[in-house]
Write a structure and sequence with these properties.
The complex is a heterodimer of chains A (120) and B (421).
Chain A: E1 2-9, H1 11-15, H2 22-38, E2 42-47, E3 55-60, E4 63-68, E5 77-85, H3 89-98, E6 108-111
Chain B: H1 12-32, H2 35-56, H3 62-81, H4 87-94, H5 97-101, H6 109-123, H7 130-141, H8 146-152, H9 157-174, H10 184-206, H11 218-232, H12 237-250, H13 253-256, H14 276-289, H15 297-310, H16 319-332, H17 336-350, H18 352-360, H19 366-369, H20 372-384, H21 388-401, H22 405-420
Helix pairs in contact in B: 1-2, 1-3, 1-6, 2-3, 6-7, 7-9, 7-10, 8-9, 10-11, 10-12, 11-12, 12-14, 12-15, 14-15, 15-16, 16-17, 17-18, 17-20, 18-20, 20-21, 21-22
Chain lengths: 120, 421
């Protein structure tokens, strides 16, 4: 079963981590990533770059139109996301709780839709 | 996609290799120990054979060829790993060439059988999670490549490779010997082997799409491995029961989805599309097995599937018989899933109200109360009892709680029919 874990935040929240603490935060996250890549449960871990680099893309007359935004201001947005493939929902929760950031803020856990179906 | 002819292993060389894979691995492990490195070496030998045999022809003694090539790879690996040690050279020198080339004339078939079983039991070791047991079984016993297994489970090859390598490390760390477990342990381990085969079957039976048309259908692979297990353990009634259950379930595959991929419930399936040959085989198997006893959950589920498969249509189904079998199944292996299915049978025999009463007993379990399967079953029974609004609401709630895309489409369509129709 595949799950998406999401961590939310904003610039204010990232700024609240002291500069000298960042190496430890990063090292803890890397240890988490390695731990679950090694078990064959973590398919991918991705951090998003800051909101000012995000763009809105539309299609007009078959041509992409790119504009600045989204303007999130103080709202929280996705900081990073993780793709898991695990035995059970229970196991997804266990791994989410083991995420270093989960000691500070909740981690969102979303089941990913699949194509399997039971007999009806 | 209901049938994938391209996915079936109809190439004679590939079928032969997959048949030989567990025998060769068992022989190499028996000789050198080191399950994890032996497994890698056998995989390499299989890949070499898959390249060479179609071109150069199949050797006279294919099993001996594979054992020889795998042994050489293993020894090379041991040499490079322990370059300073001389022990391995002595080991190679001590292995008579004749032994590498052919099965010893006095080899006991029983020893072969036990080796194959030991291998399967090792792959389904209780220290491993179910996904690891499945991956290792498909590779070490099924002879599939990591890429094929990864494609079947829609994960990157690196993730699957990591899972397999971690599983092998876990087995090594556990220190379990390569041998048949004895006494009550053996029964326990056989149960987990059957469970792993059943999970592989379900993964393949339920998946409707896959990106890789050349990856073997997992349900076919599960049936192949269960047939093989039955040859090793012809007297075990649950092994026979599991094989019958797989055949009787798989028989319905051609009728369970429409060309657009949408699901067709059992009651509405075109039974003319069911695979009569599989049904005949499954029915014969469960009929000869049941009276022998002791009766277990796979035999009972197979018996239920047989009653469905033998009925002309949903109304001529012998529901009292199905209900009696579910009553028995609930005694032998109680679970919320069994209770849900029993509720449907109760509704057919005693009316929808009785079915709904039985469902109500599951609602005290908080996790079960909002489970999409419970909601969908309740929706079905409410519709049968004429409560269209209640049925629609439950179908909608079920649709929003399933992670299965085809089920969500089906449940949402049912809700819409009841709202507008």
């Amino acid at each position: 079963m595949k799950y998406l874990l999401l961590i939310y935040g904003n610039q204010e929240k990232w700024d609240s981590v002291r500069a000298e603490d960042w190496p430890k935060v990063v090292a803890e996250q890397e240890a988490f990533n390695k731990r679950y890549r090694d078990t064959g449960e973590l398919i991918g871990a991705y951090g998003l770059s800051d909101a000012p680099t995000a763009r809105l893309v539309r299609q007009k007359d078959g041509v992409p139109v790119v504009t600045d935004g989204p303007y999130l201001e103080t709202r929280e947005y996705i900081g990073s996301f993780y793709l898991l493939d695990v035995e059970s929902e229970q196991r997804a929760y266990e791994i989410a709780a083991d995420m270093p950031w989960a000691r500070r803020d909740p981690v969102e856990v979303w089941p990913i839709m699949h194509e399997s179906a039971a007999d009806l | 996609m209901t049938a994938r002819p391209a996915g079936r292993t109809d190439h004679p060389v590939e079928s032969l290799l997959r048949e030989l894979a567990p025998q060769v691995l068992a022989a190499v492990v028996r000789r050198y120990g080191q399950f994890d490195t032996a497994e890698d070496a056998v995989q390499e030998a299989l890949i070499a054979a898959a390249e060479q045999w179609p071109r150069d022809g199949v050797p006279d003694n294919p099993r001996g060829w594979l054992v020889t090539v795998a042994s050489r790879r293993l020894v090379d690996e041991m040499r490079s790993e322990h370059a300073r040690r001389r022990r391995e050279d002595a080991l190679v020198a001590a292995t008579p060439a004749s032994e590498l080339l052919a099965r010893p004339a006095d080899a006991e078939p029983v020893a072969d059988r036990d080796d194959s079983l030991s291998l399967l039991f090792l792959c389904c070791h209780p220290a491993l999670s179910a996904p690891s047991q499945i991956a290792l079984t498909l590779r070490a016993v099924g002879g599939l490549t990591t890429a094929q297994i990864a494609a079947a489970f829609l994960v990157p090859e690196t993730t699957m490779a990591q899972r397999i390598s971690r599983a092998k490390q876990t087995i090594r760390a556990s220190g379990v010997p390569f041998a048949m477990p004895a006494g009550p342990d053996r029964a326990e381990r056989l149960r987990s082997v059957l469970h792993v085969l059943y999970l592989i079957f379900n993964e393949g039976y339920t998946a409707t799409t896959g990106p890789n048309l050349t990856s073997p259908l997992l349900s076919d692979e599960a049936i192949r491995l269960t047939r093989w297990l039955r040859r090793l353990l012809p007297d075990d009634p649950e092994v026979a029961g599991l094989l019958a259950l797989m055949l009787l379930t798989d028989a319905r595959r051609p009728a369970r989805t429409r060309p657009d991929g949408s699901l067709v419930p059992l009651a509405e399936q075109d039974r003319g599309k069911w695979d009569r040959q599989r049904i005949a085989e499954g029915v014969a198997l469960i009929t000869e097995t049941l009276p022998r006893g002791p009766v277990g959950p796979y035999q009972l589920q197979a018996a239920i599937a047989a009653v469905h498969d033998e009925a002309e249509d949903v109304d001529s189904t012998d529901w009292p018989q199905i209900l009696a079998l579910y009553d028995l199944l609930e005694k032998v292996a109680p679970s919320p899933a069994v209770t849900l299915n029993r509720a449907v049978a109760v509704a057919k025999v005693h009316g929808p109200a009785a079915g709904l009463d039985l469902l109500a007993t599951l609602e005290s379990d908080r996790r079960m109360a909002n489970h999409h399967r419970l909601l969908a079953t309740r929706a079905h029974l409410l519709a049968e009892s004429g409560d269209r609004a209640g049925a629609a609401a439950n179908y909608r709630a079920a649709a929003s709680r399933t992670a299965s895309l085809p089920e969500r489409r089906y449940l949402a369509a049912r809700a819409a029919e009841l709202t507008t129709g």
